[in-house]
Amino acid sequence: MKVKGFLLLSLITITSIGISITSFCLRNSVYKDYYNNLAQVPMEAVPFKAMADGVFPWTKVSLPENKEEKPASSSVTVAQQEAREIKEFKTVDDSYFDDALFIGDSRMVGLSQYCVAIDSRATFFAQKSLTIFDIRNKEWIEAEDGTEMSIAKALEGKHFKKIYLMVGINELGTGDEERFRNVYAQVIEGLKYLQPDATIFINSIMHVSEEKNNTDELYNNTNINIRNEAIKGLADNRTVFYLDINEAVDDENGNLRAETTGDGVHLKGACYEPWHQYLLEHGVE
């Protein structure tokens, strides 16, 4: 029994050391987001926390986080960036979406299904249950041959002038608003790298109905507002803009209008026009 106990203890010790080494070696790549607070998540616990979020040692980090330096003649200096004039919203027509890409979860899927004016012109990379973590790490966009590819691969050879993002409802049970904001910022930087001429529009996380808000401890508007405030600060009103879609779909109490939703979360098929009109009223040139 003593021998078996010793062997078991040795196996546990070796496994713990192996996990810690793996965690440390991947601290600047796959596990980067989990090293923000080692006081709450010890190094040896990082891989288990990551696995709970669907992130494994072999997970690919598809979006580059930093741009490579370009020759001085073509690079944009910090001074030039700061000198760019802050832009204001203007009303546009549907041709504005001819060179637009929409990325998002099931709510964005609904926009593609029920707003023909946009879907007939724009490109959609949208998927049910999509999260900001999926956009950054996973191969989730279906290719013509049925295989799935990363957003970086999907954008090869493409040229978009506008990119609209809407995710966040599915992430409410994962991490906190700081981690959500950090990964969102990384995705934006990656998209800037992949599509340097694109203006990026952050669509707010759409609210839920009053009934849903009052009965769900997780998927409620208090939690949604906390996440929206976190990503709102990513906009610089030069190349990245924040769109408060809730202005178009909320009732007077700040809840998704009850008559526009069947499940308290998603818009009914006939109720996407306010969102469409809001986008038309918030173009930039």
UniProtKB/TrEMBL annotation:
InterPro entries per UniProt: SGNH_hydro, SGNH_hydro_sf
SGNH hydrolase-type esterase domain ranges (all copies): 161-272
Name used for this protein in its record: SGNH hydrolase-type esterase domain-containing protein
